[in-house]
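Known limitations

Structure tokens in this collection are predictions and should be treated as such. Users comparing against experimental data should check residue numbering before alignment. To illustrate the layout, the record for Tribbles pseudokinase 3 is reproduced below. The input appears on top and the generated tokens appear beneath it.
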Amino acid sequence: MKLIIIIIIIIIIIIIIIADKEKTWLWLTNGTLKKETEGLILAAQEQDIRTKAIEAKIEKSADDPKCRLCKETKETIDHILSCCKKIAQTDYKQRHNYVAQMIHWNLCLKYHLPAAKNWWDHKPAKVLENEHAKILWDFRIQTDKVLEHNTPDITVVEKKKVYPSKSYREVMAPYGILPPHPNIARLAEVIVGEESAYLFFQAGRDDMHNYVRRCKRIPEDEGAALFRQMVEAVSHCHQHGIVLRDLKLRKFVFANRERSKLLLENLEDSYVLNGPDDSLEDKHGCPAYVGPEILTSRGSYSGKAADVWSLGVALYTLLVGCYPFQGTKPASLFGKIRRGHFAVPEDLSPKARCLIRCLLRKNPAERLTAKEILLHPWLATAGTSGSSRSSAGGEQMVPEIGFVQRAEAKEEVEEGLYS
Ligand SMILES: [Zn+2]
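Generated tokens:
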């Protein structure tokens, strides 16, 4: 027994020494444990705790392998941890409530609702509400449809996904036109009440903005696999006459644990075109992602080309770890966007730098279309299936502040390119 423990400790120490900390942390937060590893842990615990199953089957010191509490099923570690009926209403329920309390506490922090300093002191209120969200605790949901589980532990109603009943058809219009696409979240359910309509979308996990912020920079082959999916979604919308207008990293969410499949979260703020003409007049979008023509033109601009500019900002940000145009005040940010100056770090591959420059072109007519982006050599050679985190990870990392200074010091003058 002692030998096994020593071997496990040595293996763990070796893993800690050789492993990439960033990747290890990612692996741990994903919560994926290999079946063999989980089996080994359970077997080691089983021997150490000496369950009845071990005593009867291996040690032969007892006759009956059945659980000493419920006396019904074989007493394995798995049974004690999560299957015993005898402690379901006490220990398991308490553990369940602790976890729910912790999740509720985290949600309160996320939506800026009142929460205790520590999760273990947090007492979830039946209803909490502010301008961002409403959180219900152990609340029966009343709808005009029959729902299978109508008393969830926690219900979060994000207010921006709740629309007045009168206008929700307008919001849903793009979904009627757009054929399903694997990289665009499906509208899963619509519940219409007398005053409000609730739209529920195919669930996503973490969004790309948070992911990039955590990783600082994403390696090129993983970046290509993710960016390809973003472009596929935009290209599908453009092909069917929908301009997205408010494109940004935050709009893309991960559909799986491995963070390899992306979904466009919803079609909010999108615009349905009447024909082949994609000129728009109203100004829309997130300051960091807005194209120069929207800032300078008084008349109309091409909606699709503006979406492509936003894709360029997204691509730059995920590969470099900061926005191409930055400013503490809107006036200085917009000034930089209008001038179209930005620096591309030289440690990016030539193909990646080329694609960034083909998207962030000051003249909208010179930008690639979404469909053309998919044919660019950077995407054509990399990342046609899933992600691969294994290459070019740690050594590309540049501390954010250091990078900004370095980039400013040797900012390339790209005036000639654009004028
Ligand atoms: Zn039992």
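For this record: The chain has a mean pLDDT of 81. Residues 90-158 form one domain. Please report discrepancies through the issue tracker.
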